């Protein structure tokens, strides 16, 4: 009886300690957000700009020119400053989920257009899980050659290695491709291996953070100076290397043209009819394809890719803690 009481006491103390730590992290995030708002009006001290020698990949273009590729909008009730997404060139806040989706969408479309990947639609049984519980098809991605040219492409290449090894162990065929949701989940594991504990803030932010770190290494972004421990703990956004603004605009024009062309060639009438950001959005697709039945030969690849990325992101996000837990 005494041991049981001791165990209950220890468990209670552990829970209380975890709750206190969670509240402390929430307060730090709130103070970081307040500090960031206060420092936006004055110039930040940053490191010296580096010489840029690496061409921008599609994910880097979509990140740096997010004001052109991602709809504006702030998430509701978000206290963690790292979960917020901003367009680096303008400083405007953009929608975090759609920014993460656009980084992947731009990368996958570029790899498909260069014949590194193939997109295929296959039949599957409904999983009865949100966000699309009754969907009868799955998009599979087939790798034709090694993926290079951008941070996200290299992470996807590692994810293919992981998924293909898992498929082979189960006796499956890699020629049939890897489902998008599995590929995104494995890619996220690869990305998170490069992030510290303090940098991780959920699937949307982690994908952005991974691309951001690569852009800093390449010289397109300049990190703020962080001399003190508190500076390292605070979330302060990097600034754009002013010497490459024209180059970014040129890359953005090329990417926008490529995404729009892919949408026109492989999108439904609903996806191509409206005015939207380059590449489209999951909210602007033919909703009838969610209820489609076999055969799936005529399903638009653009719409299916947008739906598959949205589904993969939402499935991962639903397993993560809510924004305001413990705050």
Any chance you could write out the topology, listing elements then pairs?
Elements: H1 2-39, H2 58-64, H3 66-69, E1 85-86, E2 93-94, H4 96-113, E3 117-123, E4 137-143, H5 151-169, E5 178-179, H6 180-192, H7 203-218, E6 221-222, H8 229-233, E7 239-240, H9 245-266, H10 269-273, H11 301-317
Antiparallel strand pairs: 1-2, 3-4, 4-5, 6-7
Q: What does the average pLDDT come to?
A: 81
Biggest pleated sheet: 3 strands, antiparallel
Low-confidence stretches: 37-43
Gyration radius, to the nearest Å?
21 Å
Tell me, briefly, the overall form.
globular
Number of helices: 11
Instruction: Give the total of beta strands.
Output: 7
Distance between the termini: 35 Å
Helix share bin: 40-55%
Strand arrangement across the biggest beta sheet: 3-4-5
SSE run: HHHEEHEEHEHHEHEHHH
The percentage of residues in β strands lies in 5-15%
What count of structural domains? 1
Q: Would you tell me the structural class of the helices and strands?
A: mainly alpha
Tell me the quaternary state. Answer: single chain
